[in-house]
């Protein structure tokens, strides 16, 4: 007979989210679309097939008409995102972590900077990503309470 106090519940197939990050020096609409075509799209198709929603910020390369057409032509749903919304964009917190680690590393050359960026990015744990994603309901509530003004996030 089962004894409830002796049982531990668990989720056999927990939900998960894949986060894909990219950094580059100068990106225009054409080079951004090349990155999407040759790197993001093959990765996303391998991981999710055609069942994914893409998110990016409103950087000029991201919001260009030609980029919008690229997504439409490839049948990719893009999550609409308000301008200047770091409160609602958890990856901004990851970039902040990278920037803080870069300040501590104090790179002096371009090669040192690149190495420090790679090391900083690699040091971000899955748990940190999960905590940021799990904070979304609180972030949304905070933005609503603040009537769209900045929050602690």
From TrEMBL:
Species for this entry: Cirrhinus mrigala
InterPro entries, per the entry: RNaseH_sf, Tc1-like_DDE_dom
The protein, known as: Tc1-like transposase DDE domain-containing protein
Pfam family, one: DDE_3
Domain Tc1-like transposase DDE, first and last residues per copy: 24-114
Superkingdom assignment: Eukaryota
């Amino acid at each position: 007979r089962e004894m409830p106090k002796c049982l531990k519940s668990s989720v056999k197939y927990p939900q998960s989210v894949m986060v894909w990050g990219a950094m580059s020096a100068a990106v225009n609409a054409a080079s951004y679309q090349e990155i999407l075509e040759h790197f993001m799209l093959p990765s996303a198709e391998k991981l999710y097939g055609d069942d994914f929603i893409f998110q990016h910020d409103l950087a000029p390369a991201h919001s260009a008409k030609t980029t919008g057409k690229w997504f439409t032509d490839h049948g990719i749903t893009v999550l609409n995102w308000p301008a200047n919304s770091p409160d609602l964009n958890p990856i901004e917190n990851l970039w902040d972590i990278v920037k803080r680690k870069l300040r501590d590393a104090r790179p002096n050359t371009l090669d040192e900077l690149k190495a420090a960026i790679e090391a900083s990015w690699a040091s971000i744990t899955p748990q940190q990503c999960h905590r940021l994603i799990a904070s979304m309901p609180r972030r949304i509530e905070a933005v609503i309470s603040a009537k769209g003004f900045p929050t602690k996030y």
